[in-house]
Every structure is written in C-alpha cells, then in structure tokens.
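Fold this complex.
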Amino acid sequence: MKLIDCPYIGARPQSEFVYGHEVREMPKPSEATDKEWADYVFSRASAPGVKKEWWHHVPSGIWFVFERDTLTDKFIRLVDIAEVQYEL
Amino acid sequence: MSYRLQEQPLEWIDRSKTVNIEVEGKPTRGFAGDTISSAMLANGDIHMGRSFKYHRIRGPVTFANHDANALFQSSEETDIRGDVVLAADGMKLHAVNTIGGVQNDKFRFLGLLSRFLVVGFYYKGLFKPRFMRSFYERVIRESAGLGKIDLNWKNKRKSKRYGFCDVMVIGAGPAGLSAAKAAAEAGAQVMLVDENAHIGGTLDYQYANDDSVAAARKELKEAVLNNDNIEVQTSAVALGWYSDNWVPVNTPTGIIKVRAKQVVMATGLFEQPSIFHYNDIPGVMMASAAQRMISRYAVKPAEVGAMVVANEDGYRAALDLLKAGVKINAIADLEDHETRGDLAKQVKAQGVQIYDRHAIYEVEGKKRVTSATLCPLDSNGECDSTRKTTVPCDGVFMSVGWAPVTHLLFQCKSDIKYNAEIGQFRANSMPEGMFAAGRVNGVFDINDQMADGAGAGQQAAAAAKGETADVQRPALTTVRQSHEYPIFRHPKHKNFIDFDEDIQLKDYINAAKEGFDNIELIKRFSTNGMGPSQGKHSNMNGIRILSKFTGKSIDDTGTTTARPMFHPTPIQHLGGRRFRAERTSPVQQSHIDNKAVFMEAGAWLRPEYYDTEPTRMESIHAEAKAVRTGLGIIDVSTLGKIEIFGPDAAEMMDRICTMRMSNMLIGKTRYALVVDEAGVITDDGVVVRYTDDHFYYTTTSGSADPAFRTVQKQIAEWGLNCEAVNRTAQLAAMNLAGPEARNKLAQFTDIDLSEEAFPYLGARTGHVFGKPVTLARVGFVGELGYEIHCLAGDASEIWNNLLKECADVNIRPFGVECQRLLRLEKGHVIVTQDTDGLTNPWEAGMPWACHMKKDFFIGQRSLEILKPLQSRTLHGFMFPESFKGEPKECHLLIKDGDLNGRITSVSFSPTFNRWLGLAYVDDMEAKIGDAIQIRLDDGTLVEAELVSLPFYDPEGKRQTCDVDGTDGKVA
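Structure:
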C-alpha cells in the first residue's frame, strides 16, 4: 500500500486518505452553454501526467492539495490551497 | 527397494524419528523432516501424479514446488504440495488428477488421442453441433480443475499481521544470507524471508560438497541465526511487491503485511528443462532437483543416469550424483565441455563419457525412463537423428539453463532486459528502495554471490537511514549460464514445454502459426504457463521458441506479466480474520435489553425491529401501531450531524442544499435535499438555524462522512469564511413520535411545547430530564413528533427515562423497518432506496425542494438542463384490499409487454390493510387513477392503481396539534 506524506504528521498509509479528484475550476454556471457544462460535469482528462489533486486525511479531517505525477505515482509537492481557490 | 542414502552432511531429516503416511493406500515410511515426496522417493515410489490434459504418469521434475506433478489430496485439503509439505504421521493422501488412482487412472489412455486434442481444441472443436454443447460442458467441468474441495470445510482462517523492518531480504541463499548479515551489522532491523524450510539456499545443495565454502556457510548461518536484529521467516513466501515496499509474506500461520524501508531481492533462479521427446517420463528431472534430493533428504535420485548439460553447474551436479553412488552413463554437452572449467575435467577424470555438441534427443520408458538417446547437433542446433547413441539409465538430469526469479522485480517496475552474454533476464537498474543481489542479478561465482549480497545489504542499510554506502559490487559473470535454445524437435512430439498443461513444442508453434504470435496471446491460447506453476519452468522456453519463430529478439518478444501472488495462496490466508469496524449507538444496551434484532447499516448496527411478537412482521406492525395511536421512539443517533458556523455559514448552506437556507428564520428547521454536480440526489436531512451564522445539519446515516468531507472541501475551494464540525459521534438523537408525544414530553422538559410557542418545523434548545438538548419538530414518520438531539453521554439516560416514564401510554421503541413503513405511508422518499445513481429531484417528485431562483447551488445548472428531459416519475400505488401476493422491491412494471418502470419500496400497510408502495413509471402520461401492471417473482402480472401521495394524512394534520383522537384511524 502506498504511503502519502501528510505535511503535519509524516508518512501515512493511503487507506487513511480519501481521494477528492483532480483540481478543476467550475465554469460560471450562468455563462456556460449546456455542452460546456456537461463537459465539465462528465468529462475527465485521464491522460497521465502531473496533476493537482484533492486528498482528505480522514483521521485528522484535513483537505490537502498535492501535485502528483499520475504516471509514476509520485507525490511532488504540497500545493497552497489559495492557489486553487476560486470565486463563484 | 530403499533409495535412502547414508547420512548426508547437511540433511534436513531426523533419522531418530520415523513418520508413517499412506499414499494411494500404500503405507509409506519416512523420517521426521521428510516431505511427502521425499518419503515416497526414499521408498522407491516415483509416481506422484497424473498430468492435467493427457493424464500421463509423472514424477518429480523440479522437486522445488514449481511443477504440478506432486499435488496431493487429503480428506480435508486439496492441492497439497508434496515437494514441500512435511510428511506427518497418519496422513492419508491421493494424487489429485486421477480417476481410480495414479497407476490405474481411467483417463490414462487420453494421450493416445493427443492428435485430436490439438492446441486450442476447446476453442475450436467444442461448439458444433449445438446439441452436444451440454455434453461437452459436462465433460469439461469434470476434467477441469485439480482436486476436490471438502464441502464440510471448517473455518480455519489465519490472522493477518503487520510487520515492519528497515531491510527485507527475500531469499536466504548465499546472497540473501550475506545481505541480511551485512545489513544487520550496519544497524538495520532485518527480515529475512525464504520459501524453504531452512535457510541456506544453494549453499546447502549445489555447494553441499564444496569444501571451499564450508567455513563461509557455517559463519553466515550462525551470524544470521544469532543476530537479534534479524527476524528469520522460513517456509514463507514473499507474495508480491506493492507501492512503497509493501510486501505480503505468506507464512504457515498466516500473512504478514510487511512495510520495509528497503528490499533486497536475492531470489535466485529456477532451473529450466531441456525439451526433447518424452522429457516428462518419471526419472527425467532437473539436475538441481537431484541435488536437493541428495543433500536435503538423503534420497538417491536414480541408480544409473544420463545428463544433458549446458553450464558448469551441470558438472557440479554430476559430481554430486557420482558421490551419491549414481552411475552416469553419458553426459550430452550442448557445447564443449572444455569450456566448462575444472569441474568438467573432474567429471571426465572419473571416467564419465562426455559427448560434446550433443543433445538428448529422446528417452524411452513406460513408467520410468529406461534409456536415453543422444544425437549430435548440426550447425543449426538441431539433432542429427541419423546418428544416435543410446544408453540405459533410470534417471535423466537436465542442467541447460535458468530463469531468474524476477516476479517482484517486474512488479516494482525495475528495468529488466535480456542479457545475452549470461543468457538470462536481468534488471539493469532498480527503482529507489530496491536492490537485487546474487544470481538473479547475474552474479554466479559463489564468492561473488556472497560479496554481491553483502554489498546490497550494506547499501540497503545505509539507504534505510537516508544515507548512501560507497560499495563496490562484484562484476557480472561473463560466462553464459543458460543455453539459448535447449529445445529439440521430434517427429513423434511429446516433447513438453509445460508439464502442468501438457503443452508440446508443436502445440506452441502451431499457436504462433495461427497468429497468436504475441507473448501474452500465445500464453492464453496455448495455456503455456497457465497451470499451478504459472510458467516457472515453462515461460523462459516459451519466450525462446516464440523469439526464434518470429525472428524477433528476446527483448522484443517480451515476457508475460508476473502478477501477484508469486505462489498460490490459500484463500483462508488471503481472507484473514474478519476485521471490520462496527459502530453502535450510545443507547445500544437498551436495544439489546428490549430484544432488538440488529441489522447492518454501513458500519452501524441498528435495530431492525424489536422481537416482541410471535413473528417479525407482527412485531413491526405492532411498533407501527404504537406510533400511529400512542407513542413510539426510535434511535436515530446514526444520522450525520454537522455544525456550520461563521459569517459565510448561510451562504455555504445555500450552495450545498437545493432549497434556500439563507432566508430561514432563527429557531426554524427546513428539509435539506442535496444533489451532486450532475443533479443526482445524494443525500437529504434537516437543517436547524440556531443563529444568523450558526447552522446544524443532519445527513442520512451513510452520508455522514462524505457529506462532511464535501462541506469541508467546498469551504476550502471557495475560500468561504466559515467552519464545519462533524459532531456525528459526539451527539446522539432520538425521535419521539405519536399522538402522545407532546403531552408526555412536556412533563420532562423546560421548553414550552405549546403549538403557539413551538410550532411544526420549529427548533428549540433547552433541557430534557435536566440534560441539554435541541428539540426539532419534524415530519419524519407523519405523526406529531420531536427529534431530541443530545450529548452522546446523556442519551442513554434520556432514552431509558422516556421508556420508563411513558410506560403508561405504552411507548414502544421502533426499528428501521417500522420507520420505513411509516415513511412509506407518508410517501417520503428514502435516499438510495427510492433513488439510484441517476435519480434527479424532478423524477423523484420533489420539484418543490429545488429553489431554482437561488444564485447558485451544487447541481443547479444540471437540474436546469435536466428538467425538460424528464422521462420517468416516482408514483405511489396501491393494491386492492383483496390482493394476496408478495410484491417486492425491484419488481418490474410492464405495459404492453414492455418494461414500464420498477418498484422501489413496497410494504403491507397495517394502517390501510393493503399493499402499497412507490414505483418509477417510465410513462410520462401516467396519472393518478391509472392501473399499472406489475410482474411478480413467478411471472404473473398483477394490477395496482396509481394514487396520490402521501397515502397517509395528506393534509398533514397529524403533524400539528390537530390530532383526531388516538384510535389509529386515518383522519
């Protein structure tokens, strides 16, 4: 089982984490066409590469955003959540 | 006749203790430490089983647990590995794949039909004529599989354990022992794993008679066994490699899930067979198998032998055989014995006839090999069958090459390429945290193997500390150890590549000719490597043959994927003991005292009903009657309970729920419906507004954690100024419902329960029995009711007091089933029962819950798009009172012979004295009063009528104070 480095308490087994999907910014609902909206809801770019992802550490109840290379399954860095925040 | 040799220096048997077993009804005597196979061999019994396809009689080939010939069956267990399982007094065993025993197997003549059982015959031949298919199926089912399962099997699950170490060393041969010793001496905590019963590896059989390593062997073993920093696991198999060095190790007492900081793979090699006519006849075996027989169990492999050799190891084996008193009539060297070094000279000096550039072309023998025929090799490496030399023998020993045990190396994605100089695959580089050492690493000289292991051990120990060790590892061998093509055609075939599956050379080549010329495809079509040994003695030759056939290099031909498990693992080990979290409410003891029958709801144990009446249904109906006519109480502590507070709390609630929450008045509750981004219903609950910036929000039991995670994530993602706290475990909740609820609860609380002071859908804080609570007047089961939220520690006292103090109105605790019935009567949708992974609120009849004019909520835009696309509607339906049947959830609605929907909830309602339920109707034209057809389990179509919802108390009078008496009649 994979180990994930929790920034607060160090390496923990992956089973302590819940994957929260790739970071994606929602298009403005009022401006998106039906097609654009459906694309946002249903389509995911599954091609491997370096991605920002949400990971929730269940025991401590904290969300993190990590950058991970999904090809090599290596966690690269902890991302400041301010980097991925957006306003509606 | 006894084949037991005099005492061998390193033997594993204890001659002071005898062991008696019975194989195929024949008493067999061995010594303590004998395996089933070695005890048989010592008695001269070489016939271990029958092959899978042609039921050919078979003896030991690898004698290392890598072939399927020595599989046995006891009354309790099947596929007992005779090569490694110790003989124990009283064992009664049979071979697995026979009908009528090994000697008189009913299917023993199947080999004569082999020309009709061509490769892939079951894909091609067993389809036509169609009426024969059931016959073929029966025959295949009877022939398929090995062994019989004991249907009275008793649960013998083994515990799983966790292990941790700095350095794990896999393989306890010369390299592995050296690695373990070096790593431990450098301060690492080491776990040493080996599948054999004893440590030592090849030191104890290939080098058993080599005096030059005796001192090193003794020192290594003592150092390993006496070092407290080394945990030795023998008879233990490293099953696979998973991320970050997570290696499950199967031991006789169960699986250890080991997290190793560093792993040293000193896994060694599997010896590979030469392929010639009748190479499966008992007596034909690997040279290393013969060495294991001699050194470990003091068993003489044969009286007179012949050998086919392509490396120095073969001559080492020849010397061991000669020493054990085996006469060697001929050695066929595929190349030139002069290139094999000093060992070949020693063999020759003992008078053994060596035939250079010869192969064994064929052997003869019915039940044991009686002669071997050697032919010279021509310039194409083919046997020249016009020039035969035949020698008598009862044993044929093959030492033509090896395949490295790279399974775990492939799994950790090391860079494995074929090294033509050595003749084997090898990892050119290893990923971080992994080291390979010894022969699997291409290092063959025995002293180099030990040095390579020690070097890897030092490197691993340093890496475990985050350092690097400056270690010079020995150079790779420059002598080829494995022949490129020890495979020889024969017009009469029966030259087997795979002994498990009876794959002949021509089968494999024909498969390639038919177009299955990719290594993964040819494996599936020919079944080469798909038997119990999973290609451990057949994949390498398969690759060589395919490579030659296609003209591609070995690397371009590639290998099949070596997935975990490395070795077949009993399911009782994989399953382990049941290890599952179980949650109970703080009121659990009272439920037990009140005879609750529990059901699992996610991790929770919840009362399904209280077993107070003669039958389950009567108990449930009695509970329902209590709620409708008097007073009932249900434990809803399993609800998710989330508090949200902060300046943006109202904004957050608006975004999460479909209904507008920001305009709620303080002290009010509101139904909360939650949909996901696709507009699919995921959750529902109740929201309480305590203050302007403080909300309390309940979720369904199963959604507590995901709902909380979503709230937290959205707060972070949107940067809102509010916080969420998951209070699910801190708080308990119970719902007191029934016409008597207000009268009784008013006696125990300081909250004014009058209709004016505390109307329907209100929420108040105060005390019940002196304990702090939040009361919420919610619809829930369709009666006047109060949901009491309190601290978990106070729950038991409040609950028990209510049961005691309300005994005068015959209060009853009610369970989940009764609650479902009551909610169904009210037409309330239960999320995940009446909704599925596609249901949106339009279909579920809840457009009233979607406040589309809000600025935003999750899923709003999708609901906008979905609204005009609605194609089904959730309707209530009722059967006539006269209906006597048993409709079930998921029964289908039929219209004109086509599907027209399905039932999601259905129950017999004691209130209405008839069956009623909810169903999706695909027909958008359907309206109240229409008849629908429902198909029951037995296929009969029955009729019900669509009715308006809710069934019970449509005006909602009973949820206010307008209770029309307590007789349970519908208002």
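The CA atoms of residues 369 and 394 of chain B lie 5 Å apart.
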